[in-house]
Amino acid sequence: MPVYHQLGELPSKRHKVFRKTSGELYSEELVGNMGFVGPSSLLYHVRRPTAIRALRTIKELHWNCAPGEPLRHRHFRTANLHTEGDPALDRIPILFNHDVSLSVICPTVDTSCFYRNAQGDEIVLVTEGSGRLESPFGRIAFNGGDYLVIPRGVLHRFSFTPEKRVLLIIESAGYVRTPKRYRNEYGQLLESSPYSERDIRCPQDLETHDEKGDFRLIVKKANCLTEMTLAYHPFDVIGWDGHYFPWAISIHDFEPRVGRFHLPPPTHQTFEGDGFVVCSFCPRPYDFDPEAVPAPYTHSNVMSDEVLYYANSEFMSRKGIEYGSVTLHPDGLAHGPQPGRTEASIGQKQTNELAVMVDTFRGLNVSREALAIEDPEYYLSWLDND
Ligand SMILES: [Fe+2]
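^ Those are the sequences you sent over. The predicted structure of the assembly is below.
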């Protein structure tokens, strides 16, 4: 995160005596990645965050690959996936490799405990729903269309309003960041970036809970869930500052680029991870030359698997998809507009599509659970009907 943020009370210097009115010291904690050289924040707890009463393994997560099947274009209808329950604990990956996984879940409950992902950063696209992401850093209010970026190690929980919720969760083994080419050498987002620091929403409304008791925390590490009973409420931070914290940006604040002729997908890049990128295809005017072909040309994404999640039912080059569809166009095959879509795009003025693309640089596995929601004839959809 190139943004520095601070909330609450802080001592004048790092690692300096900082006492409560009782005379006790606050407990200073550094949270950061890459040892002590990556982005980090310093938090000041009322109690020691290391105080654990009990722990036990509650679940091993087995990500099951579907049995070997012929290489083909795939289409999964996630509206048919039964993924109710807890947004942190009950998610089922649809596609995954060692760098990244994609899950869709329709949470029926708030996070039933505190949760910390210690094996990956998370990008949560709130396709539907609203509420608050709560953490020791403060609260972030969210609505449909928000990306929530939760760096690994950040303890948090979700609190939803009663409306329906649909979340796309992208878990990344590497650090999720703004694309390097959007930043200047000093870390600031460039004028030419499709979003700016002003669009990034940081935690607010820091509340300090000085409570002793039994507080349930689930930590995910090495695909295993460990339940810990904390002796103190984990939201006991009196102040913090730094560059490492959860943040949000709305997909509707991503400013799409349009050209006289078709611009390639990297134009829509939103996030950068290790081994993958995330792009946002947002409502926008089409290419404006009268002779422009707005639909993309057929392409072979050599050394890349391409995933699209359709956050509504419209996409200019594709037919047969629906809201919640996930398509996988793997390396080894060409893909492009289906019959009729290129011709139909000529002369169109704008698109209302809303979709998220995840391009991975290593091949993706299809989970066994995803087979139950697969459209088995999708790979035939490029055939002419004559
Ligand atoms: Fe593509």
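Residues 341-345 form the longest helix (5 residues). The helical segments are 341-345.

Shout if you want it in another format.
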